[in-house]
Each structure stands twice: as structure tokens, then as C-alpha cells.
Amino acid sequence: MLSSMIKHHQEQMKGRNETQDKLKKETIEASNELTASLVEHLNVGVATAYLNQKRLDSEAKNLHVAANNFSKQTQQWLTLIENFSSALKELGDVENWAKTIEKDMRSITAALEIAYKIERE
């Protein structure tokens, strides 16, 4: 009777152990699937973030190049405006010089006319 009870107990333990091993394997498989699924989900997010970062880096480089080009173009415009301004100043100086010469010539003409009138009389 004791030996049959021990046998019966061992059979129950064996059945429980088999059930526990089966449940353990199922749990491990389920946890592996969950882990793989989570990693795959995270990898999709990381890949998206990586692609976005690559695009941002590319756009930043393009913006830097465009800003440099704009700076160079602005500098060229400033040079052109400065040259134009200098040319206008020179024209103003030439106009002033011409007016001064004209004024002097009128003075000389008036003096010559006066001298001529005096000499005629």
C-alpha cells in the first residue's frame, strides 16, 4: 500500500512536472514572441527617427549652402550699390566742377565785355 501510494505520488509528480515543463516552454516561446514583436516595433520607430535625422541633416546642409550663396550675392549687391554711389558722387563732382568753370567763364566774359566797352569809348 505504501509502495502503491509512493508510485501513485511519483506518477502525479511526473505528470505535474511534464505539465510544468510544457507550460514553461509555452511561456518561454510566448515571451520570445513578445520580445521579438517589441523589438520589431521599436526598430520601426528607430528606423523612422534615423531616416528623419538623415533628412534633417541633408536639409541643414542645403540651408547652409543656400545661406552662403545668399551672403555672397548680398555682398555683390552691396559692392554694386557702393560703386554706383561712388559714380553718382563723381558725377556730382563733375557737375559742380562744370558749374564752377561756367561761372568763371561768365566772369571772364563779363570782364572782357567791360574791358572791350571801356576800350571802345
UniProtKB/TrEMBL annotation:
Family: Belongs to the BLOC1S1 family.
Cited InterPro entries: BLOC1S1
Stretch list, region Disordered: 1-25
Gene Ontology BP term (one): endosomal transport
GO cellular component: BLOC-1 complex
Protein origin, superkingdom: Eukaryota
Ranges of biased composition (kind: Basic and acidic residues): 8-25
One Pfam family named in its UniProt record: GCN5L1
Name recorded for this polypeptide: Biogenesis of lysosome-related organelles complex 1 subunit 1
Residues of the signal peptide: none
